[in-house]
Write a structure and sequence with these properties.
By secondary structure, the chain is of the alpha/beta class. It has one domain: Rossmann fold (3-Layer(aba) Sandwich). Strand 2, helix 2 and strand 3 form a beta-alpha-beta unit. Helix 1 packs parallel to helix 2, helix 6 runs antiparallel to helix 8 and helix 8 crosses helix 9. Bound molecules: zinc ion (2 copies).
Length: 318
Amino acid sequence: MSDRFYYWGGLRDLAERMQGTERLMMGCRPYGFHAGNLLSMVAYPLLLAQLVQGRDIEVRFEFQVSFNDIELSRPQYSPQHPYCLAHYGLTTFQSTPDRFGCCSSESVHWQKIIKDHYEVIRQRFPHISVTFTCTSEMLGDTSFFDVLLRTVNNQQEVAAVIQDTCGYGFPMGGCPLAGALCPQCGLADGITCVTENQTVAFFCRVCQRKFEGEFGAFRYWMNHLPLGIAKEAHLRSDLWITGGDYLGNNLYDVYGKLARLFEVSSFFGLQHLISPVVSGIDGHPMHKSKEDAFIVPLDRILASARESPLSELYFTPE
Ligand SMILES: [Zn+2]
Ligand SMILES: [Zn+2]
């Protein structure tokens, strides 16, 4: 069982036992960046570094920042299954055109913005290394590929783990949790078969066509739950820093069960630091897909988060 540390008290306890050389993983979907993301991805890691430094340790953390660009770009809402994992008609952030029109994709647009928020880490902690990696770039790693392969080839089993643990619903006929994108229409709406020697067959329901080729000839998508385990298999982090919104649907339990299923043993040595949920003007947690999400200057976030035992922080726009 991996250990969980909650909010400020957890952060303080962790800082007492860290060596200052650990690998810290924080990740997000590259399609927005609000105060809640800034808290878990920059402010909490920074506060942790400050406390460890306070023990007269030179902090040499490795920040592993990952962009989940192979997640599907829009969770489809269904009234029967509020958390339905339907994938019809969707594509990934990597394959979504930039809505602002200035970059090669939605993912690339947000990566630039998010990277800028880490400048403060470089200034205040020159010995902390920050690496940014897209999940699409991890596909070439054997450990990552193995989790993708197992997800594609054991869809029902993986779906059952998720459904039993967090109650996510699946549409009639089951729902894939990973696969190829159609080379013609770019959508995830199809059936994928991947073999051990990395040959891929994909049937697109939209184009009604079958495609075959080498693994590298396709783009891929993956649900965020198996994706978390695939990232851990590749990055072998010591600590994940995530927002408190993960607690609501038992997602840490899902991750644990998937790690067991995919035999990613490093997950069980992981520690989890959970940052407070950030709520906005309407009193509800900020969400990228909601209009009310906004950014708050880092110093304001640091001032609110430091010493706060609360599981939820509130901010109003400037
Ligand atoms: Zn852009
Ligand atoms: Zn197609």
